[in-house]
Write a structure and sequence with these properties.
Blueprint: H1 2-22, E1 24-32, E2 38-45, E3 48-56, E4 62-68, E5 74-80, E6 83-89, E7 94-100, E8 108-111, H2 114-137, H3 143-166, H4 173-179, E9 182-183, E10 186-187, H5 195-211, H6 216-234, E11 254-256, E12 262-264, E13 272-278, H7 285-299, E14 304-310, H8 315-322, E15 328-331, H9 336-340, E16 348-352, E17 358-361, H10 368-380
Length: 381
Amino acid sequence: MRKTFILIATFFLLTMVACTEEQQFNIKGEITKADDKFLYFEQVALDGIKVLDSIQLKADGHFSFKHKRPDAPDFYRLRIDRNVINLGIDSTETVTIKAQWPTISTDYTVEGSLECSKIKELSLQQIALQQQIQNLITGNLLPGEIQDSIDVLIQTYKERVRTDYIYEAPRCGYAYYALFQRINGIQLFNPESSREDVRTFAAVATSWDLVYPHSLRASNLHNITMRGMRNTRKQTTSPIPEELIKEVTLFDLQLPDMKGDIRKLTDLKGKVVLLDFTVYQNQESPARNILLRELYTEYASRGLEIYQVAFDPDEHFWKTSAGNLPWICVRDTERNSALTYQVAELPTYFLIDKENGLYKRNTDIKDWQTLRTEIETLLAK
């Protein structure tokens, strides 16, 4: 009887251990030539990046992380400094990653997960697209030719991703991942203003509503799609084209603020303007806006204005983030202003003098103290 009890108890304990292990996934592998560097295992959640675990790599580069299996496909990443490997997990799989520092973001192998393999393909194609756009911006084309060429590149890329990744398997995590890919901080698929992009979101949202009806990401997709459908139904005319007016050195912007009022950049003639391009959903945005607020508090009474253009696809998030900011906050759902001003990365800013003339770009200003000096110089003129 005692032996029987011991056998039953042992079986019960083994079963409990097995069930616990079955509910976890494992990320393991090696990253060589990264001795003593910290490797972070992070979750890419809807409300931001969350550090789940970390390890200081030894000479052999071996690492292993375990975490509870998500109820629906979810996204994670391995990070050293600012270099990341994006991962998608939808089961209790074991994913093996091998890479070498410092090229871990572009030169790594992945085994054991179709999701992670597809996300690698998408990430590398996104990096290639980014480089193609950068080559155009730094080339010898005229501004109009640059914009046309970028439009063609982006549209071609989107059509390929729609066909090969999203419509091919809308219920998969990599289809969701593809919807939110960004170039220079700007989301490629924009359901706020494009009917075709709304249809693309709807394909994934419908699948996720059926397969993962209780997941937060399914709810997020559903809400974005419904809002996009409402917004695109209201569109009856094409957006006003960008045009050069008043001064040959400045392209005017005419974008809506939180009340829906159109705010024209050139109406600020007579003030020194910091034209700022940003995305509030960037995790560095709150700290950066604190620095901008310090500038605004110090110089607004002397004639400084900030005209901040946001590219956030989520209108509610934008309004919530911009609600307490004292300067002019507008939103560009079409991304035309980024192309007009050849914005290669976000955030980016320009200084504009009192005569509507472009004065300097952020790449010509080394730090915040130098920016203060340049603002004071323009205000004194």
